[in-house]
Specification:
Elements lengths: L3 E8 L2 H10 L6 E8 L17 E8 L4 H15 L4 E4 L3 E4 L2 E11 L2 E8 L12 H4 L6 H11 L5 H11 L6 E6 L8 E8 L5 E5 L2 E5 L2 E5 L13
Parallel strand pairs: 1-2
Antiparallel strand pairs: 2-3, 3-7, 4-5, 5-6, 6-7, 8-9, 8-12, 9-10, 10-11
The structure holds biotin (BTN).
The site of biotin (BTN) has 20 residues, from helix 1, strand 3, strand 6 and strand 7.
Length: 233
């Protein structure tokens, strides 16, 4: 794949810049990178705080059912290259322990997907976040990180993507609460994350019944001992 990398000092959101480029004819392989975003966006309408010196990029890719997992894997593996113990919270939040270090936002435009990646490089903008400089002594520039992400984004068969994803998953085996889909009208699902299926959907076991979740916001629940519970030791 030939990539065309366009670098900016400051943009409103690399997602918007990429979208405009796609409307003007840009194709798969276009990458928009900025040093700073004025209005960075996260998933579910949240803001992504984007001070100068972070990593903010939008990749134009083909729409692919496993695309969202593939991008998360590439970011987590790139961070693991520099000895950061990055894991994935379903579908593609990149965590170190329970703290978020990177996020991925996928927006489809026709048959193209704009995959936005934000990585906290030098600063953690909120208390629930961490950043690269806190998690490794290895010096990582924005360009180094981009190169590493691209190395891990090479095409792979679905079976391999799922294997890599499962190896990085911090969610499988955990008790979770998932706000399903775009609305929470049907209420959250609470249960044990049992795995992911061949389409990357999360399987949650609730009272011996498996629920299949295509999209949603997943929260890892802490283990809370119940009355009468005793540890094995
Ligand atoms: C999330 O975890 O909520 C997703 C965060 C995605 C942030 C990136 S930064 C580059 C791109 N431009 C944006 O406005 N958002 C994405």
């Amino acid at each position: 794949m030939n990539y065309q990398i366009l670098r900016y000092d400051q943009v409103s959101s690399t997602q918007d810049t990429a979208r405009k480029l796609v409307a003007a004819g840009a194709d798969e392989g276009t990458i928009v990178v900025a040093d700073e975003q004025e209005h960075g966006r996260g998933r579910r309408g949240r803001a992504w705080i984007s001070p100068s010196g972070g990593f903010y990029a939008s990749f134009v890719l083909r729409v692919d059912p496993l695309g969202s997992l593939r991008v998360g894997i590439a970011v987590a593996e790139a961070l693991r290259d520099v000895e950061i113990k990055a894991m994935l919270k379903w579908p593609n939040d990149v965590l170190v322990g329970e703290k978020k270090i990177a996020g991925v936002l996928i927006e489809n435009v026709g048959d193209l997907a704009i995959a936005g990646i934000g990585v906290n490089l030098a600063a953690a903008p909120v208390a629930t976040a961490t950043c690269v400089t806190r998690e490794t002594t290895i010096f990582l520039t924005q360009d180094d990180l981009l190169k590493r992400i691209l190395q891990h984004l090479t095409p792979a068969l679905p079976k391999e993507i799922l294997k890599r994803y499962r190896a990085l998953s911090a969610t499988i085996g955990r008790d979770v609460r998932v706000e399903v889909g775009a609305s929470t009208a049907s209420g959250p699902i609470v249960g044990r994350a049992a795995g992911i299926d061949s389409l990357g959907r999360l399987l949650i076991e609730v009272d011996n019944t498996l629920h299949t979740i295509a999209s949603g916001s997943c929260i890892h629940l802490r283990f809370v001992p119940q009355a009468g519970w005793r540890s094995a030791s």
